[in-house]
Automatic annotation (TrEMBL):
All residue ranges annotated as the Methyltransferase small domain in the record: 47-125
Keywords: Methyltransferase, Transferase
Pfam families documented for this protein: MTS
Protein name: Methyltransferase
InterPro entries found in the cross-reference section: DNA_methylase_N6_adenine_CS (IPR002052), N5-glutamine_MTase (IPR050320), SAM-dependent_MTases_sf (IPR029063), Small_mtfrase_dom (IPR007848)
Gene Ontology molecular functions: methyltransferase activity; nucleic acid binding
GO biological process, one term: methylation
Length: 212
């Protein structure tokens, strides 16, 4: 487990006490909307576990599964973020399966999830310097801002149950890009997009498998 050398900062996130420091992306209050929408999807979803990708300090998934209790698996590549996630889960009195590493390496091929929540880095690399207060690895989405979005959609395509839902956070101008990427996965469909000043939330559902 990573030692947290910096003094933690604390924020109230939808009623949850969330700890983090400057090495972790600061929880954005508006993203509680993703938690609340995810909770609505969880209540309607088939039986199964909730997966959060690019979870950071864990606030979005923890609030979602506080509002609509389910087993939660969280994935993040940052050891520091995972350490804070474990602390925040303990504060929320939740048992969370925290997996530290790349999403395509820490998930088993046969694992399936009823709801998948994702908040990947989506800032275009050329614009990262505009956000000096944010850790580069937490916001750098590659040349077009969509590198980690593509990775998350691959996980959704491979691990979301039939009739399950994914809720993806992207930049405010990236919803059309997500629609285009989702269209390359024949069994996924964009159901709804909600746009906010700081970002957009995209609901993606897994359709019934086609019968030959």
């Amino acid at each position: 487990m990573t030692t947290l050398e910096s003094a933690p900062l604390t924020v109230d996130f939808g009623g949850l006490r969330i700890e983090y420091d400057e090495r972790v992306l600061t929880p954005r209050p508006w993203t509680a909307a993703q938690s609340r929408w995810a909770a609505d999807l969880i209540r309607l979803a088939p039986p199964g576990t909730v997966l959060e990708l690019c979870s950071g300090a864990g606030q979005i998934g923890l609030l979602a599964t506080t509002l609509a209790p389910r087993t939660l698996v969280c994935v993040d590549a940052s050891p520091v973020a995972c350490s804070y996630l474990r602390r925040n889960a303990a504060h929320a009195r939740q048992r969370v399966d925290v997996r530290e590493g790349l999403m395509d390496e820490v998930l088993q091929p046969d694992e399936e999830f009823a709801v998948i929540i994702a908040d990947p880095p989506w800032v275009r690399r050329e614009g990262v310097a505009e956000f000096p207060e944010d850790p580069v690895t937490a916001i750098d989405g590659g040349d077009d801002g969509l590198d980690l979005v593509r990775s998350c959609l691959d996980v959704v395509a491979d691990h979301l149950v039939v009739a399950g839902s994914a809720l993806l956070q992207v930049g405010p101008d990236q919803a059309d890009d997500v629609r285009r990427l989702v269209a390359t996965h024949h069994h996924l469909a964009v159901v709804e997009v909600r746009t906010f000043e700081r970002g957009a939330l995209v609901q993606i559902d897994r359709l019934e498998d086609l019968v030959a």
